[in-house]
Amino acid sequence: MEGLKEMLISFFEENKNKGVLLSKDEIINLDNKINMSEYTHTSDTLKKKYPETSIDDIIIGFKEGIFFTKSHFYIIKQKGLGSDIQRFEIEDFSKIGGKPKGLFTFGKVLVDNTKIKLVRTSKNDMFELFELLKPKISLLIKENQ
């Protein structure tokens, strides 16, 4: 989608101090590290499930395993000892939501009111950024039609 990359990079620059966003370079660095990151082995998982998409196509992401390319957003879910990636049309970002974990509840990311993944964060920062990003993406969609 025309203008999405530039808008996402600008959004990252404006909000990187919130501590929940990752740059493309940060995601690529996490991909090959042996750690507990959501992004460990992302390139391998993408090759298997979406061979037309490469880790080099990523623009920005959230630490909780949500990232953007020029036409889609993806959510990484833990699956046993590995992970799975679910792809969504960029238009569906308007349907994303969720809530952080509470004292006795799991946090979750929803798309169209369907639970996609559990999250570890107990802060609202990521969900507040979702709400800031939704109208920006919707405006770009309208401009591209």
Task: Provide a descriptive summary of the structure in words.
The protein is α+β, with helices and mostly antiparallel strands and 145 residues long. It has one domain (4-144). 33% of the residues lie in helices and 28% in strands. It is built from 4 helices and 8 strands. It has helices at 4-15, 24-31, 42-49, 125-144, and strands spanning 21-23, 60-62, 66-68, 72-79, 82-89, 96-99, 107-111, 114-119. It has a 5-stranded antiparallel sheet, sandwiched between helices. It has a 3-stranded antiparallel sheet with strand order 6-7-8. A hairpin with a 7-residue loop joins strand 6 (96-99) and strand 7 (107-111).
User: For the report, how would you describe the main beta sheet?
Assistant: 5 strands, antiparallel
Task: Identify the quaternary structure here.
Answer: single chain
Number of domains: 1
Number of strands: 8
Strand adjacency order, main sheet:
1-2-3-4-5
Helix and strand layout, with pairings?
Layout: H1 4-15, E1 21-23, H2 24-31, H3 42-49, E2 60-62, E3 66-68, E4 72-79, E5 82-89, E6 96-99, E7 107-111, E8 114-119, H4 125-144
Antiparallel strand pairs: 1-2, 2-3, 3-4, 4-5, 6-7, 7-8
Helix pairs in contact: 1-4
